[in-house]
Amino acid sequence: MTILSTAIDLPRDTGEGQTRPETFNAAQALTQAMNWRYAVRQFSDEQISDVELGQLLDAVRCSPSAYGLQPYQLIVVASRDVRTQLLEHAYGQAKVVDCSHLLVLAAHRDIGPELVDRYVSLASVARGVSAAELAGYADGVKSALAAQSPGQRAAAAHHQAFLALGTLLTSAALLGIDCCPMSGFDPAGFDAVLALEQSGLTSSVICAIGRRHPADASALHPRVRVPREQLISVR
User: Is residue 203 part of a domain?
Assistant: First the structure.
């Protein structure tokens, strides 16, 4: 399965009345995939394959991020036992347990100079330049971050995690993977179960992925979106 090509192969779908063509032309893929997706309320017991999961995670890894820092981690909760422990902190939403995998985007509690140094180290290798050649950029980023309060930097890290969520949702739709993003959960409870605080992380947003259950009535509901002329303005 390929994410980007002139013809994108996608699995035929699963929900009643939601039959999906096997092949999408690239020019139509995005619109059709976004119209196909919805926030799944009930997942089947079908598991996402390792190949599909890997493609989705790689897509999220390529998500844009301010200064290129990516101040978050993407945590894959594959264990049903762990997801069961998280259930009470997700206000009893069964899809947290019943999905194939639960993805947790956990933001860094602060965006410190070590993240800038990490970027410089990675950029040096990727671009074949010395760290010294990137020192001016690094100093500029560190200066900009130092001018912000800890609260501002923490909020910025959460914003970057939500950018990654957008990439995740769009990529999942193109790959034919069902999902449901959730901000309705207790971050402190998730942090405790996943032992995030000691890693300098805190839960930002979660997303259940898998396959929609044929009995999920939400799949049959007409999509409700603000009309284009009300949502979009040009100035």
Answer: yes
CB atoms within 10 A of CB 190: 24
CATH number, domain at 108? 3.40.109.10
The SS3 assignment for 35 reads: helix
Domain count, the chain: 1
Q: Is 24 exposed, middle or buried (0-12, 13-18, 19+ CB in 10 A)?
A: buried
Q: Each residue of 209-234: pLDDT tens digit?
A: 999 999 999 999 998 999 999 999 99
Cα separation, 212 vs 225, in Å, equals 21
The two three-digit tokens of residue 192, written as one number: 């405790």
Torsion sign, CA atoms 98, 223, 219, 216: positive
Q: pLDDT by residue (tens digit) across 125-153? A: 999 999 999 999 999 999 999 999 999 99
| Ranges of the chain with pLDDT below 50 | 1-17, 20-23
In a domain, 175, yes or no: yes
What are 161's two structure tokens? 């995690």
Determine the structural domain holding residue 174 and report its residue range.
Answer: 49-231
- The upper half-sphere exposure of residue 89, i.e. CA atoms within 13 Å in the direction of its Cβ, equals 18
